[in-house]
Amino acid sequence: MATERETPGGxxxxxxxxxxxxxxxxxxxRSATARPQVLTGARVVLPQxxxxxxxxxxxxxxxxxxxxxxxxxxxxxxHWLVPGFVDIHNHGGGGASFSxxxxxxxxxxxxxxxxxxxxxxASTVTDEMDLLVRQAGLLSELAEQGDIAGIHFEGPxxxxxxxxxxxxxxxxxxxxxxxxxxxxxxxGKARMLTLAAELPGGIxxxxxxxxxxxxxxxxxxxATYEQTVEAIDAGATVATHLFxxxxxxxxxxxxxxxxLLEDERVTVELINDGTHLHPAALELAFHHAGADxxxxxxxxxxxxxxxxxxxxxGPLEVEVSEGVARLVEGGSIAGSTxxxxxxxxxxxxxDRLSVEDAVTALxxxxxxxxxxxxxxxxxxxxxxxxxxxxDADFELKGVMRHGEWVVVPQLA
Length: 412
Prior knowledge:
Distance between the termini: 37 Å
Structural class: alpha/beta
CATH architecture of the largest domain: Alpha-Beta Barrel
Largest sheet: 8 strands, mixed
CATH topology of the largest domain: TIM Barrel
Radius of gyration: 20 Å
Oligomer: single chain
Number of domains: 2
Low-confidence stretches: 1-22, 26-33
CATH superfamily of the largest domain: Metal-dependent hydrolases
Order of helices and strands: EEEEEEEEHEHEHEHEHEHEHEEEEHHEEE
Number of strands: 21
């Protein structure tokens, strides 16, 4: 399914394989921002608030406290400068999947970088255990090289009652020994694992994940309110795409949604594409959890950045029509075609969130979850120069990662 696509930064996807081949995204001999830069005139969203007519200095890979003497001044008046987006749940894009070959993986990375996602966790989908173990090894190499921030395993430890776009015949109970196989295969690069904690072994596996520093996420679950509370007390800290693939909120049986929303230890993922959630559901989540406990995700599959057509999601065939992905057999929603620049624009123009709350949900909170707040997630001196330039209508106009333009602004 992979397609070879050039991005504005000029990256191309080299082939690669295990055993010493360098799979990293190639960069030019000289960065487009090798000379220090000062971006001036924008509305700059900082941790303490938005600065009108602000400036941001970039020196090498990092944000600088003061403009270097030889800095190039770039006037970005009339634009917004926000931190680079951080996606903790993403299966692919650009016609390629994170369950695919090295070329596929790099294609998907490039696609989402061009839409502002400067930090990305690669998500797998339910498959045979030996294939997941093999893919974990491949993805761990990309994580070691800095192209992805780690691995998220979505399945196979999920409920057949809430399987969504996962193959039911490949599901299994989250027995700790099985979960440990994936943790070990990821070689320290497992960031998150989604499971249905009500299944046999579920609570013990939540404890195992917490002990190994891996986020235990509750999702694709048929758990009761009480079972979900038990899982949170055992160490679960994320709700995988809240509302989707779990029982609806009930007044007598509140189920997992109420437990996940009410507990301050839990961050809730939301897919803000207008398909997965009614705006009222998103408003409900923000009202009860607050902006500091929401992480916008894409849950993107291969079609993100490409368009309608037939695709594969793991072993299952997906039809994408008018931007909505559904299984060919059964019709279940099968991930999204969302990119985070679209999620940002929708948040502020449709959902009427403040720009600051959108930044919190797209950058600050996911960076904190990944334990990377010292490096990414906000525009502060000493942090990575990861940023997104948006125009007054919140359309993406530029993307910088590690001080290099991935999408070079075309300014009049």
